[in-house]
């Protein structure tokens, strides 16, 4: 009997793997076709992938397997790690020095202004508590590196805005923006659950987590350089080692989150930066390899992000949801203008920075449902507005970045 059950279990597992493989093949083939189609139309390819994900996901015609959706968050995280490694390998020290203070301001001022504005507005118009509106605020306030980073890297490679290091500014700021948003969201979530949380201590955790992430990233980068210099390893294997260690690094953050905060995604980008700074010959070859891996990772990231979008739920938030998102974006735009004050950017370049800082996708897809699953009274409403923010800002932001960057950033 046990033997029969084992055979049956093996058969069912094989069938699930077959269905998952078919889902993966569907994502690859249709994703590549959408990418090609949208680029032919002069639109960002990632927009086509997002729309594809909505269509073939569980809230559309549902041809992505449930097993694939269950591991979706892990696959999206791996894809995000790859693009942040690419970002680190594309940031030069002299470029970072040009935008140092502005990048620091961009990392927290726009998100903080947007979050505080949404918190007070949502509490008033939705008639929910300040703690609940705080959760909503800092879910929505997080900008999306997944949408921003690939396009900034493309501008860096084409030397658009290179003289003033504008894409580098956006890259550096966006990678830290999420740390602030997620930390403040978890603070409000803890307050709702009645936990004894010291808000001042939680705020102090933000710079601590960033510093620890950077320091660990520097350490890992230096270890990798020593390893690559000491042993003769093919570039393909070096790339796999780099990706593997970066994945482990982000899992260490999860394991230690209740003990010590670590901004692992900032650290991942730092690894790439150290490799480029200390071992540029190998770093440039690794960047070339990661560019090829990204072709596949990009498909997974954007199609699976799109698959998380419940377009019907988003519509339920109605005009109030649109109002909250729109007012929040105005506050974020003011924050961007404050952050670039004192730079030599002209008004078109400043407007580009505002547009580049609007897309939301990855964080909202990842944590939008957390309040609902935690039993927050307005959890469904929070999720609806989070999803609506993706639907509104990701496509418009992606299109806006492409066209404004092409026209307003100097060669």
Overview of this structure, please?
With 411 residues, the protein is mainly alpha-helical. The chain has a single domain, classed as Na+/H+ antiporter like fold, CATH 1.20.1530. The protein is built from 18 helices and no strands. The longest helix has 39 residues. The model has no long low-confidence stretch (mean pLDDT 86).
Give the C-alpha Rg.
Answer: 21 Å
Structural class: mainly alpha
Number of distinct beta strands: 0
The shape is globular
Q: Based on the structure given, which CATH architecture is correct?
A: Up-down Bundle
Please state the average pLDDT score: 86
State the share of residues found in helices, binned by percent.
Answer: over 70%
**Terminus-to-terminus distance:** 72 Å
Assigned CATH class: Mainly Alpha
Bin the strand percentage.
under 5%
**Unreliable segments of 5+ consecutive residues:** none
Reported for the largest beta sheet, the result is: none
Q: Give the tally of structural domains.
A: 1
Can you tell me the CATH topology? Answer: Na+/H+ antiporter like fold
Order of helices and strands: HHHHHHHHHHHHHHHHHH
**Counting H and I runs of at least 4 residues, what is the number of helices?**
18
